[in-house]
Amino acid sequence: MSRVRLGRWMVAIPMSLLAVATIYPLLFTANVALKTRRDYILDRFSLTSTLQWENISTAWTSAGMGRYFVNSLVVVASSVLLLLLLGSMAGFALSQLRFRGSSALFLGCLAGLFIPFQVIMVPLARIMADTALIDTYPGLILVYVAQFLPFTVFLMTSYYKGIPPEIVDAARIDGNTVYGVYRRIMLPLGTPALLSVGILNTLFCWNDVLMALVMMPSAENRTLMIGVTSLRGQYSDNIPTFASGVLIAAIPVLLVYLFLQRQIADGVAAGSTKG
Fold first, then answer.
1. Locate the ABC transmembrane type-1 domain: which residues (predicted)?
2. Can you list the domains of the chain with their CATH numbers?
3. What confidence score (pLDDT) does residue 5 get?
């Protein structure tokens, strides 16, 4: 066996095992979600013989997963839009505009990457309570923006630094204002990085549990991931319904990876070559 073929097998085998380890839990959850309670108790690992779509319907309506899904959709969409707007503006300013203190400001943004939410959780909850933002959409949106903005600024700044400053200077000579340069030049050029960081922030916000648990204590305002954790206690004797809730929460993330994997790869590659 040649060295090239041996090297390919050394890469293919671990990757195949990793793919199986990733796909199997999802298939197992889908199989359990379509079982009856009796079938699950008798043999949890066997393939289902009947498709119990009622389990998914029960999780969506009776368990409140539909409401939690809408809550997550509103919060995540608003948070990601704000992150992209603020992150792209800050990245443009820190990478292309010349002003005193820009380096210190960039280092301050980087410092935010090293502060875990657990450190600021208690004082942040008190501030939010004093400003009546606990258990509200704007409160959780602001928390997500504050938590993930340093990462967004870092990525956008690194990407925009790879754009030649002569492009900005030429646009200014043509009569564009700073805002005009940002809107007409930097936003189109930054589309690969914006798409990449937007998808990552969507996954970060969608999969969050701790921040949503602190900021949304009431049952009606729970996000989808908090709703899934609450199903474990509510339907501890009905595992197929609980698995249906897990499946509902996993499907949006799976669709993002299936349909946007090329864009994710292109965005990361563009950021690495221009950063």
1. 69-260
2. 55-271 (1.10.3720.10)
3. 74
